[in-house]
Specification:
The complex is a heterodimer of chains A (about 400) and B (about 375). Chain A is of the alpha+beta class. Chain A is built from twelve helices and ten strands. The N terminus of chain B is likely disordered. Classes of the chains: A alpha+beta (about 400), B alpha+beta (about 375). Chains A and B meet through helix 4, helix 5, helix 7, helix 9 and helix 10 of A and helix 7, strand 10, helix 8, helix 9 and helix 11 of B.
Amino acid sequence: MDFNDTPDEAAFREEVRGWLDANVPSREELAGLDEIQAAKLWQKRKYDAGWACIRWPEEYGGRGASPIEQVIWNQEEAKFNAPGGVFAIGQGMAAPTLMAWAKEEHKRKHLPPLASGEHIWCQLFSEPAGGSDLAALRTRAEKDGDEWVINGQKIWTSGAHYSDYGIIVLRTDPNVPKHKGLSYFFLDMKSPGIEVRPIKQISGGANFNEVYFTDVRVPDDQRLGAVGQGWQVALTTLMNERMAIGGGGGGVGFRQVLDLAKKVEIDGEPAIRDKNVRSKLATWYAQEAGLKYTGYRSMTALSKGETPGPENSIGKLVAASKTQDMASFAMDLLELSGAVSDPAYAEAHGLFQATFMGSPGGRIAGGSDEIMLNILSERVLGLPQDVRVDKGVPFNEVPTGRKARHTP
Amino acid sequence: MYLCVYNRNTKAALEGIAVNFEFSDEQNLLREQAQGFLQENCPLSAVRAILDSDAAYDEALWRKMAELGWMATVIPEQHGGLGLSYLELCVIAEELGRAVAPLPFSSSVYLATEALLAAGSEAQREKWLPKLATGAAIGTFALAEGAGQPSAAKLTTVAAGDSLTGTKLPVADGDVADFAVVVAKAASGDGASLYLAELDGVDRQAIATLDPTRSHARIAFESTPAEPLGNPGEGWAHTQRLFASAAVLFAWEQVGGANAALEMAKEYALGRYAFGRPIASYQAIKHKLAHAYVKNTLARANCYYGAWALAAAAPELPLAAATARVSATQAYYYASKENIQTHGGMGFTWEFDCQFHYRRAKLLSVNIGSEATWQDKLVAAVEADAA
């Protein structure tokens, strides 16, 4: 065990550092640009120099790098707080799906603009009636000549309002069991009949959208996989999603709660001296450290050219609850001031309050806690699936309950 | 539902280091050998034999293990040891924990041997290390004097010249050990001094604990001949350093036990049917076991870091040890209690093996300081780190 790069890794890291030092845009350069403009500027610069999506094959805009080189790149780029984020779904989920399932001409046409940041993609999977039970989705596609006609509604679509393209799973046959009647497409988000409406969240933000489809036409040529094979294609996307939505994700961390505990008092003493406070802090520290060192183990596997084990799948599950609990506890330490979210008066400019209101989303997005526990118990521990009462039943005969309420 | 959170794989990725965070091929080979040896020589029926008898430990197993040289792992070659690293000892510790081995290994190897290595004079090492290495001698460490968190100020065991007087209770393996490293009160320094006392002829009695597969004793020293181990007035600092090293090794035992308890629960849940299907197909059971997997995985990752810090004698050891200890204690407690719960009524019977982990988990969670004590140490180490 040690904490050193191999000679090849060290040389690669050196090269990456040199390029980043010379090329990451300065604050002045980004002044006046919005989030998307800034992200596009940086992505294009990386692309032009051969540093975009480095694990992708060169013919699709990448550099054919190894997994550990990708990790090293990520580590070094992260030090600069460079703009990014809006490309995560397109590059992290749509692109791997295209690579696995699309025709060569589509790959050559669509992957380079994803790598260069010219195009932003979104993911149209969830529906009001199909969240954790994703395969219960109802948005219909009906064949009409060389095209499919889409009617229905998607929900929780991040970035739909600024996306150029979307990947979508649709019900093409309601007469067969639910997993067998789905097909997978990609489509132009500017197609006639698409209406995007933002959803206001309890945190006050509006990152998600509802997307309504009224007689939207998509060419059959843009189908990925066979008709009825959509579920299998969707699994490719979902496996990549779990890599893209990692542990943590900003908000309150151990350090912020530690600093607060040093600052506020309990019984006239700094809160950090209180045994109950120390007990909670220690447990959160141990969880954070455990996630960090689990990451080290995955990096070791990558460095040896091996596939990391399933242990990385615990990240989101652990981090989301921990973040919520830490934010809540920090507000307790603040007593009544804990309720103040006004950035002018709130501790840490309202970080704890914003995290408290945002953290419920982290426990639901990208697979709820309950779904993650199912995945761990079934795929890692090898326990059997629950009994499924809809198994083998044609989709249009599956009993349905109250339709999930959505924004009026 | 898709949050646009792109975290670049893991937090490790933010730190800008590469790591080799895995045991070597040789160390993994040792693990395989240890697993094979313990499956053959220390099945749960052997643990049960100790539970159901008056024997303090499995002497036959101890002798066979000595032939493999496990007690000699980190003892330098000039003292009859193998001179291997603590990484090898961590591998052995995890397997001993998995097997719930009924042996005085931890007292003799993690504590007595370590005390001699850290503080012993050349003569003391010369005398004891070769015997500890072959298992011919068993050592232990005597700190507790009854209820509550020990402190230098509360010690009542005192030394006068070359003798000790006072009562230690409980002392792990105190009934079978050949000598004890004793923490006694000191008038100067940090308030404590270490003494080495041979136990032959000393008034000691075995006492029942909740884990009968690990023996404990009450030892009453009365003008018992003893020699100082290390400088007087440095006993408390030695004890803290000793416990930091031992915490890593015990944490590996705890993680080994926690994974064995999870495995036991899983096997039972797969075979037990209720309402026409395996109970392992119910989310109430699946999610319980998935939570155990999460806790065990985090704890084991922290143990890796602890192993590295111990083997490298890194300044990070106090924090790494406390982190491993806290998460391993939590993981083993959870896995051992939910293993019984998964077994239902049968898990509560003497006949079933669930009790071994429940007993051992609790013993290991209090033996070198409680969970709260180690949580306090963890935060203290973070504060020291930030200072």
